[in-house]
Amino acid sequence: MSTGTNDKLPMTVRGKALLDAELKKLLLEERPSVIAAIEEARAQGDISENAEYESAKERQSMIEGRIAEIQGKLAGAEVIDVSTIKADRVVFGAHVKAVDTESEEEVAYQIVGIDEADVKKGMISVLSPLARALIGKKVGDTVTVQSPKGDKEFEILHFEYK
């Protein structure tokens, strides 16, 4: 996946909702709270040696940075309703079941946007090596993924969009 200026990164509807909720909290709660803390610290007089002021200004910088980051991600996102996908190959949003051909251990993952990825919850980033290997494949296909422990081979057992 290239990262040119016109490329939009895929994001599920759920992923967009999570970012929207975080942005709303930052704008409506965190930002006003930190502004109040800065005003309160200023009211204490000399701000040159005021730890509360410095702490509040640092927190404000972090909040503003995260707001800008989320707004940028939302602006550069292609939001996809996974439940509407009808594909005969694995694409973004797929819930994939595969088996490790060596250990015979079954794995199940959904291919999601970067911010939604959480391997413990079975959600892998569209940019991860496994997702990149799976995309474009069909049931019965075998993919090889480089891992820290060496190459792993998976056979695709099933995939669906829900």
Structural key phrases:
162 residues; alpha/beta; Helix Hairpins; Chitinase A, domain 3; 2 domains; five-stranded mixed sheet; two-stranded parallel ribbon; 3 helices; 7 strands; disordered N terminus
Characterize this entry briefly.
It contains 3 helices and 7 strands.
Account of the protein in words:
The protein is of the alpha/beta class and 162 residues long. It has two domains: 9-80, Transcription elongation factor, GreA/GreB, N-terminal domain (Helix Hairpins, Orthogonal Bundle), CATH 1.10.287.180; 82-160, Roll (Chitinase A, domain 3). It is 38% helix and 25% strand. The protein has helices at residues 13-43, 51-75, 129-134; strands spanning 9-12, 77-80, 95-100, 106-112, 123-125, 142-147, 150-160. The strands form two sheets. It has a five-stranded mixed sheet. Helix 1 packs antiparallel against helix 2. The radius of gyration is 22 Å and the shape is elongated. The two termini are 24 Å apart. Residues 1-5 have low confidence and may be disordered.
